[in-house]
Amino acid sequence: MLAWRCLLLLTLLAGIRPALAEPAAWAALRQDGAIALMRHADAPGGFGDPPGFRLEDCATQRNLSAKGRAEAERVGAALRRERIAIGKLLSSPWCRCMDTARLMGMGAVETAPAFSNVVVLSDRRAELTEAGRAVLRDWKGPGVLLVVTHGANIQALTGGQNPASGEIVVVRVASDGAVRELGRLPVPQG
């Protein structure tokens, strides 16, 4: 019986953590110099890209679905509704990331090769992760740095769990250079 009660308590606490993480994430984004890492919105087809894909040809890549396009627009609307000041918007050069960033309507999007897909470029994973950390470490503001990238990149940067499509992971860079998660923002319901 004691084991059952402990399991029930742990289950309840696990359910509370995400509920608390969202307000913490919004609060962190209201601070100048905040950093938000966003996984591209829904792009069906698993991980990576089809064989023979070409980065310069979106027709050869996994792309956003209609659901993904709507998700990107809802995330942008939520950021505007919450009056989050985006100082810089960076994106992986993959089409699904660039499209997510553009559809959010948060301003000019800059291509950032440091956030290229670490699944597809697995031989460069350590190099790309360190380059991404350097970009985050150097960000001081003004406003929020919003990076649209791939779930595996966010996982590599934070050591945390792979975020859901369209999810934002708010982070800070600790004095030791580690990227620490402060909270998460799921895609708002439509």
Order of helices and strands: HEHEHEHEHEE
Alpha carbon gap, first and last residue: 42 Å
- Derived from helix and strand composition plus strand pairing, the structural class reads alpha/beta
Structurally, how many domains make up the residues? 1
Low-confidence stretches: 1-19
Integer average pLDDT: 89
Taking strands numbered 1, 2, ... along the chain, how are they ordered across the largest sheet? 3-2-4-1-5-6
Helix proportion range: 25-40%
Number of helices: 5
Strand content of the residues, in percent?
Answer: 15-25%
| Number of β-strand runs | 6
In the CATH classification, which architecture applies?
3-Layer(aba) Sandwich
Please identify which CATH superfamily we are dealing with.
Answer: Phosphoglycerate mutase-like
Rg from Cα: 17 Å
CATH topology descriptor: Rossmann fold
**Any idea of the CATH class?**
Alpha Beta
- Largest sheet properties: 6 strands, mixed
- Any idea what the shape is? globular
Could you please describe the fold and organization of this structure?
The protein is α/β, with parallel strands linked by helices. It has a single domain, classed as Phosphoglycerate mutase-like (Rossmann fold, 3-Layer(aba) Sandwich). The protein is built from five helices and six strands, in the order H-E-H-E-H-E-H-E-H-E-E. The chain has a six-stranded mixed sheet with strand order 3-2-4-1-5-6. Helix 3 links the parallel strand 2 and strand 3. The longest helix is centred in the first third of the chain and has 28 residues, at 2-29. The protein starts with a helix and ends in a 5-residue tail after the last strand. The model is unreliable at 1-19 (pLDDT under 50).
